[in-house]
Amino acid sequence: MVRVRFAPSPTGHLHIGGARTALFNWLFARHHNGKFILRIEDTDRSRSTEEYIESIIEALKWLGLNWDEGPFRQTDRMEIYKKYAYKLLEEGKAYRCYCSPEELEERRQKAMKEGKPPRYDRRCREIVEPLDKPFAIRFKMPLEGETVINDIVKGTVTFKNSELEDLVILRSDGTPTYNFCVVVDDYEMEITHVIRGEDHLNNTPKQIHIYRALGINPPEFAHIPMILGKDRSRLSKRHGATSVLAYRDEGYISDAVVNYLARLGWSHGDQEIFTREELIKYFDLEHVGKANAVFDSEKLLWLNSEYIKLTPEEKLFELVKPFLIKEGYLKENETIDLEWVCKAIKSLKERCRTLKELANAMRYYFLDYVDIDPKAKEKHITSDTIPILKEVTAKLAELEDFTQDNIEKIFMNIVNEKGLKLGQVAQPVRVAITGNTVSPGIYEVLEIVGKDKTLKRLRRILNDFE
């Protein structure tokens, strides 16, 4: 059975790169009816926090990347790592290193000044009898030959063993190191495929030698390309690459973010928009490209707007509801007419790129009164348009069946009787009702706003002008 894992270090929030790695693992597992395991690599106690662990889990849940096992935490598994480290020590595949951090740093600086690689010089490798002083445990890397990795994405990658350092696997304080924990965990969790960013490629030969020393067959490796900004530099906040939860808070739909992430480095023909079911059906590692992917925040925004258009109004209401509550347009447990709110959403969803935009656009459907843009007011609420607004108000007040068709008849009668253009009637009313010069069709807007709120706003304008 295919078993993959996503193993974030909780030293920050889940960002776009990590989310894409999690998604590729999740899709691979679901495509092969395998297992997706969540592992928290929190051995860096100085930088790992509970807040970040909770944030990562919350982001994965929002993205809909459900895991089958875990979350496992490395800090709960310390004794397991020690057991394997001492096993290698006893078998002569690792050795005690007595060098202090200060000595190691001094030698590192000296090597750099001399233009040499700042690698450990293996001076403790041949010490046979244990010394009575603190020690770390280092792994014995082979000194000759090559390590060949047949990477599913990158192809054949070769490393010279002479360039691999004898890495510490257990520090002198008893804590294990990253490369060692990864091997032990992947073995114990029966991981069959390691799918991760290509920035981990240089760790792979070290890990392969630890696997072999433990008598374990390594999993298959797939190192996926990096994500760059449009300027081809490493992705950062200036490219819009904030945390995944920041996209949620800005009003992105999780399905749209998942769709966009899937297309960062993977393709299926020319198709751009996928359902989750389609992503699971089509996803494979063979169609992950070797070239770095480029993050385009405008394209993500476009895709999100497409998802808003495609989402049924009832579901869209559930998604936009938290934003309506946050803006104060809706109370937490307020009962609302679902048919009415779906009409309101339908009138606006083609115009909005995010749920946040949609919530703000809906304000004039919920509020009794709206703030009017000063420039719009100056241009359209004038001594010339007030008589028109008075007549519209009077006619609408007489209207019993407040529907688009009946509202249109009133407007067209005024246009024809006074020899006006429709905009001369519609635009002042639009500004009075919505606070701005742009909205869906005025008849549709008035019907959804309703007779009471429409008359309240028009009368307020008239009263303010007297």
TrEMBL record:
<comment type="subunit">
    <text>Monomer.</text>
</comment>
<dbReference type="InterPro" id="IPR004527">
    <property type="entry name" value="Glu-tRNA-ligase_bac/mito"/>
</dbReference>
<dbReference type="InterPro" id="IPR008925">
    <property type="entry name" value="aa_tRNA-synth_I_cd-bd_sf"/>
</dbReference>
<protein>
    <recommendedName>
        <fullName>Glutamate--tRNA ligase</fullName>
        <ecNumber>6.1.1.17</ecNumber>
    </recommendedName>
</protein>
<dbReference type="GO" id="GO:0000049">
    <property type="term" value="F:tRNA binding"/>
</dbReference>
<feature type="binding site">
    <location>
        <position position="237"/>
    </location>
    <ligand>
        <name>ATP</name>
    </ligand>
</feature>
<dbReference type="GO" id="GO:0004818">
    <property type="term" value="F:glutamate-tRNA ligase activity"/>
</dbReference>
<dbReference type="InterPro" id="IPR020751">
    <property type="entry name" value="aa-tRNA-synth_I_codon-bd_sub2"/>
</dbReference>
<feature type="domain" description="Aminoacyl-tRNA synthetase class I anticodon-binding">
    <location>
        <begin position="315"/>
        <end position="461"/>
    </location>
</feature>
<dbReference type="InterPro" id="IPR020752">
    <property type="entry name" value="Glu-tRNA-synth_I_codon-bd_sub1"/>
</dbReference>
<keyword id="KW-0030">Aminoacyl-tRNA synthetase</keyword>
<dbReference type="GO" id="GO:0008270">
    <property type="term" value="F:zinc ion binding"/>
</dbReference>
<dbReference type="Pfam" id="PF00749">
    <property type="entry name" value="tRNA-synt_1c"/>
</dbReference>
<dbReference type="InterPro" id="IPR033910">
    <property type="entry name" value="GluRS_core"/>
</dbReference>
<dbReference type="GO" id="GO:0006424">
    <property type="term" value="P:glutamyl-tRNA aminoacylation"/>
</dbReference>
<comment type="function">
    <text>Catalyzes the attachment of glutamate to tRNA(Glu) in a two-step reaction: glutamate is first activated by ATP to form Glu-AMP and then transferred to the acceptor end of tRNA(Glu).</text>
</comment>
<keyword id="KW-0067">ATP-binding</keyword>
<dbReference type="InterPro" id="IPR020058">
    <property type="entry name" value="Glu/Gln-tRNA-synth_Ib_cat-dom"/>
</dbReference>
<keyword id="KW-0963">Cytoplasm</keyword>
<feature type="binding site">
    <location>
        <position position="126"/>
    </location>
    <ligand>
        <name>Zn(2+)</name>
    </ligand>
</feature>
<keyword id="KW-0862">Zinc</keyword>
<feature type="binding site">
    <location>
        <position position="99"/>
    </location>
    <ligand>
        <name>Zn(2+)</name>
    </ligand>
</feature>
<dbReference type="InterPro" id="IPR045462">
    <property type="entry name" value="aa-tRNA-synth_I_cd-bd"/>
</dbReference>
<dbReference type="GO" id="GO:0005524">
    <property type="term" value="F:ATP binding"/>
</dbReference>
<dbReference type="GO" id="GO:0005829">
    <property type="term" value="C:cytosol"/>
</dbReference>
<comment type="similarity">
    <text>Belongs to the class-I aminoacyl-tRNA synthetase family. Glutamate--tRNA ligase type 1 subfamily.</text>
</comment>
<keyword id="KW-0479">Metal-binding</keyword>
<keyword id="KW-0648">Protein biosynthesis</keyword>
<dbReference type="InterPro" id="IPR001412">
    <property type="entry name" value="aa-tRNA-synth_I_CS"/>
</dbReference>
<feature type="domain" description="Glutamyl/glutaminyl-tRNA synthetase class Ib catalytic">
    <location>
        <begin position="1"/>
        <end position="302"/>
    </location>
</feature>
<feature type="binding site">
    <location>
        <position position="97"/>
    </location>
    <ligand>
        <name>Zn(2+)</name>
    </ligand>
</feature>
<feature type="short sequence motif" description="'KMSKS' region">
    <location>
        <begin position="234"/>
        <end position="238"/>
    </location>
</feature>
<dbReference type="Pfam" id="PF19269">
    <property type="entry name" value="Anticodon_2"/>
</dbReference>
<feature type="short sequence motif" description="'HIGH' region">
    <location>
        <begin position="8"/>
        <end position="18"/>
    </location>
</feature>
<dbReference type="InterPro" id="IPR000924">
    <property type="entry name" value="Glu/Gln-tRNA-synth"/>
</dbReference>
<dbReference type="InterPro" id="IPR049940">
    <property type="entry name" value="GluQ/Sye"/>
</dbReference>
<keyword id="KW-0436">Ligase</keyword>
<dbReference type="InterPro" id="IPR014729">
    <property type="entry name" value="Rossmann-like_a/b/a_fold"/>
</dbReference>
<feature type="binding site">
    <location>
        <position position="124"/>
    </location>
    <ligand>
        <name>Zn(2+)</name>
    </ligand>
</feature>
<keyword id="KW-0547">Nucleotide-binding</keyword>
